[in-house]
Amino acid sequence: MTTWTPETLQRIADADELHIAPRRADGTLRTPTTIWVVREGDDLYVRSWRGAAGTWWNTARAGRTGHISAGGVETDVTFTPVGDPAVNDRVDGAYRAKYGRYSGYVEPMVAEPARATTLRLSPQP
Predict the structure, then answer these.
(1) What is the pLDDT of residues 71-123, one digit of tens each?
(2) What phi-psi label fits residue 51: left (phi over 0), alpha (psi between -120 and 50 degrees) or beta?
(3) InterPro entries from the xrefs (predicted)?
(4) What is the CATH number of the domain that holds 41?
């Protein structure tokens, strides 16, 4: 697995929003959706605010690859589902720390429907 460079990791993590365009089965990219991104350790994570009903998330889950743009970084990524409750707890903390000022939006992001959609972003080689 490829890892983020420290500079790229920081630039994406510092961005308030990330544009995510999962790859469809036919190889084309969906129109980018604006979402939140958090850093936990040396990894980046995203979730669907709409839970499993999120259309971008369903495309990402099925295709496992896509393209992101955040903090001046544009790159192709791989999406890996996260099922580990301990990782999800730490990602919850990252969402609260970064986006806590948006209380009406952050609470749904740390609720079970969104937790179940946690994806780790990894740079493609």
Answers:
(1) 999 999 999 999 999 999 999 999 999 999 998 999 999 999 999 999 999 99
(2) left
(3) UCP028498 (IPR016888)
(4) 2.30.110.10
